[in-house]
Design brief:
Alpha-Beta Plaits, about 250 residues, 9 strands, alpha+beta, 3-stranded mixed beta sheet, 9 helices, two-stranded antiparallel ribbon, about 25% helix
């Protein structure tokens, strides 16, 4: 038996009742993110045999917002009229080398680390990493302490300050909780690509490739082997599942 996993599961079960109330959650009745995140057909379990990842070519990424718009639409994220507190699961960064003047744009989201700092500091186990590499937040036991936001070196997490309207049934969200990119786990579990990748390809940019990093024959693994890829803040040794080219 994996003792650590057993303890973490017990802790999550124990805290589900009271912690969510203290956080002032407003998640739609009947929606349970943890259960949803684990839900797969019986013959397709989540295992370490697969590690989902994404490769982003910054040379093909321009100033368009297709990936951001697709993420917002897919996950029911709307502006509250307060830009300073609006949730951002994916944001576009404009980068410029001060020495050469080379400028480019890239999308930044949760990097789905192999050893996620957000999960290390979470006092309730709300932040966790699935066996297949997707990092998630169980809003039902998130107490809104925001330790994970401080621990994330990518500034990839948002705190939901407002009541959530127009929720999607497959993406429960709630006021008083932390949230971030889920790599569209509901789509991945259904055999589809994340919405951002699909939108990028639809626009003809082909800047984002999604797939199984553990499958040597997958497109993403082949590209990484042939062309290489860069980890943002590789010095932290977090082994993120999101890699970049052209940095």
């Amino acid at each position: 038996m994996d003792t650590d996993n057993h303890i973490n599961q017990y802790r999550r079960t124990l805290l589900k009742g009271g912690a969510a109330v203290g956080a002032g959650l407003a998640i739609a009745p009947g929606l349970r993110l943890f259960e949803l995140a684990q839900a797969k057909p019986a013959d397709q379990p989540v295992t370490e045999a697969v590690r989902w990842g994404m490769l982003i070519d910054t040379s093909k990424c321009d100033d368009c917002s297709a990936c951001v718009d697709a993420c917002n639409k897919e996950n029911g994220i709307h502006s509250t009229g307060k830009p300073e507190t609006d949730p951002q699961w994916i944001r576009k960064l404009n980068v410029k080398d001060p020495e050469t003047g080379n400028a480019f744009s890239l999308p930044m989201m949760c990097q789905h680390c192999e050893t996620p700092p957000c999960a290390d500091v979470c006092p309730t186990g709300a932040s966790f990493r699935r066996a297949d590499g997707i990092v998630l937040v169980d809003r039902h036991i998130c107490i809104g302490c925001r330790y994970c936001m401080m621990a994330c070196p990518y500034k990839a997490r948002s705190f939901e300050h407002e009541e959530v309207e127009g929720q999607k049934s497959y993406v429960p969200r709630g006021k008083g909780t932390v949230e971030s990119c889920t790599m569209c786990v509901h789509r991945v579990d259904a055999g589809q690509s994340p919405a951002c990748v699909e939108a990028c390809n639809a626009e003809g940019h082909q800047a984002m490739v999604f797939g199984d990093l553990n499958d040597a024959n997958s497109e993403i693994a082949q590209k990484l082997k042939k062309e290489g890829g860069t980890q943002v803040r590789a010095d932290l040794r977090l082994n993120p599942g999101i890699r970049y080219q052209g940095l």
